[in-house]
Amino acid sequence: MNLILLDPADLTDDHHAWVRDPRRLRHLREVHRARPGDELTLGVSGGSIGRGRLVSLDEDGARFALDALDQAPPAALDIELVLALPRPRMLARSLEHVTALGVKRITLLHTRRVEKSYWQSPELSAEKIHQHLVLGLEQARDTVMPEVELETHFKPFVEDRLATRLKVRRGLLAHPGMQAACPRGLTSPATLVVGPEGGFIPYEVEALLAAGCQGIHLGSRILRVETAVIALLARLG
Amino acid sequence: MNLILLDPADLTDDHHAWVRDPRRLRHLREVHRARPGDELTLGVSGGSIGRGRLVSLDEDGARFALDALDQAPPAALDIELVLALPRPRMLARSLEHVTALGVKRITLLHTRRVEKSYWQSPELSAEKIHQHLVLGLEQARDTVMPEVELETHFKPFVEDRLATRLKVRRGLLAHPGMQAACPRGLTSPATLVVGPEGGFIPYEVEALLAAGCQGIHLGSRILRVETAVIALLARLG
């Protein structure tokens, strides 16, 4: 928690915040080992960041006196991610990684090689997803929550919604064996599409190319989805 | 296991291999759902890779008939990694990530903010480290085992051994607040130095710069070590 992310409801007035939930209190106690008087970085969800002083930390919660919260959060990465739904534990970690890297729109997509049982995972509840996004934001000192969409049907998503998006954004399909090496340091908006462990099937590759994606690869090494997503975003960003 | 990594002892002659250890047999049965006649990718530790046909899979083990193993493994990344020893679970995952990305020399270093208890972790046994390296190689279809060194004393390592290495390699210290942005697509050998969660202390930063490192950063977002290492290697590689 490099930033304490405040919900607007945590603000008692313009200069005071009151944190009550057990997770943040435990983190303040056990990781920050915070004591009254300590200065910490805080930010309001969707808003700006700044410094605050811990006034009290007891069974009543943590109370902060805030300086002007007048710094902008770090710039977002203008790369949207379309990711074949990973297995639950990898999903949890990947949501944190890509949120920390600054992605603001994440689409979780069903594909042939996604196990159907993954869609029943408790990790896909709105609450669990929100928790992982918060962890990613707190890590990177960001306040702007990514939007996460679940797309359980490949064809209508790719043919309609993705194809429409790609009229104004560059589409990049990361898939082993594609012709172009992953570009470096994009300067225009893009949508990155990453398949499941085992990859997209040929029909899916064709549909994604037909929807306007350009095929790219990261070399001859086959990476786990979790590793590949970070490596691709780092090279593109 | 995108490649079945054979120990030279697994070869019964130039054209036959016999795999007997429970981990690989379970993987062949449960993940590959392999049946006699299936073609799989195999490679000899430290050597070349190729295709083989599963001849039998039973309580006796898995027997393969090998075609010529005549393909070179993927090119190594000419970036050595010096990493402050992470907590055990993150160490395990990071060893797999960086091995899959092609790093061939990994130095795990003690620094002020590394918890001393991490050095007692069973994850640091030679056997456990070897297991994670094998998983990374199998993932990336590589056969060349990275070398892992443990350096429990910061000062003599940095002042002597690192400074000597940096006479022939570019040293890059990744640390928030450094002046230069992380370079892209290095074309010469480099050694990348990454700190612990919480970062290097000022004395350590000074010692690393004095040993010949250039300070670099990945932007204003603070990333977990696990994420940062992958992002740095992807951008440098």
Brief overview:
2 copies of one chain form a homodimer. With 237 residues, chain A is of the alpha/beta class.
Shape of chain A: elongated
The CATH topology of the largest domain in chain A turns out to be: Alpha/beta knot
Strand content of chain A: 25-35%
For the record, the count of structural domains of chain A works out to: 2
Sequence stretches where pLDDT stays below 50 over 5 or more residues of chain A: none
* Largest interface, counted by CB within 8 Å of the partner chain's CB: A-B, 28 and 28 residues
Number of discrete helical segments of chain A: 6
Domain Ribosomal RNA small subunit methyltransferase E methyltransferase (chains A, B): 75-236
Pfam family, one (chains A, B): Methyltrans_RNA
Protein name (chains A, B): Ribosomal RNA small subunit methyltransferase E
GO molecular function (chains A, B): rRNA (uridine-N3-)-methyltransferase activity
Key descriptive features of the protein:
cytoplasm (chains A, B); seven-stranded parallel sheet; Alpha/beta knot; Ribosomal Protein L25, Chain P; alpha/beta; RsmE (chains A, B); homodimer; 237 residues; rRNA processing (chains A, B)
What would your notes on this structure say?
Chains A, B: This is Ribosomal RNA small subunit methyltransferase E. Chains A, B: It is an enzyme of class 2 (transferase). Chains A, B: InterPro entries: Alpha/beta_knot_MTases, RsmE, RsmE_MTase_dom, tRNA_m1G_MTases_N. Chains A, B: Belongs to the RNA methyltransferase RsmE family. Chains A, B: It comes from Onishia taeanensis. 2 copies of one chain form a homodimer. Chain A is α/β, with parallel strands linked by helices and 237 residues long. Chain A folds into 2 domains: 4-66, Hypothetical PUA domain-like, domain 1 (Ribosomal Protein L25, Chain P); 79-236, Alpha/beta knot (3-Layer(aba) Sandwich), CATH 3.40.1280. The first copy, chain A, is built from 6 helices and 13 strands. Chain A has helices spanning 22-30, 88-100, 126-140, 154-165, 202-210, 225-236; strands at 4-6, 11-13, 16-19, 39-44, 49-58, 61-66, 79-84, 105-109, 147-151, 170-174, 180-181, 190-194, 213-217. In chain A, the strands form 2 sheets. Chain A has a 7-stranded parallel β-sheet with strand order 9-8-7-12-10-13-11, with helices on both faces. In chain A, strands 1-4-5-6-3-2 form a 6-stranded mixed β-sheet. In chain A, helix 2 (88-100) packs parallel to helix 6 and helix 4 (154-165) runs parallel beside helix 5 (202-210). Chain A is elongated and about 60 Å long. The mean pLDDT of chain A is 96. Chains A and B meet through helix 2 and helix 6 of A and helix 2 and helix 6 of B.
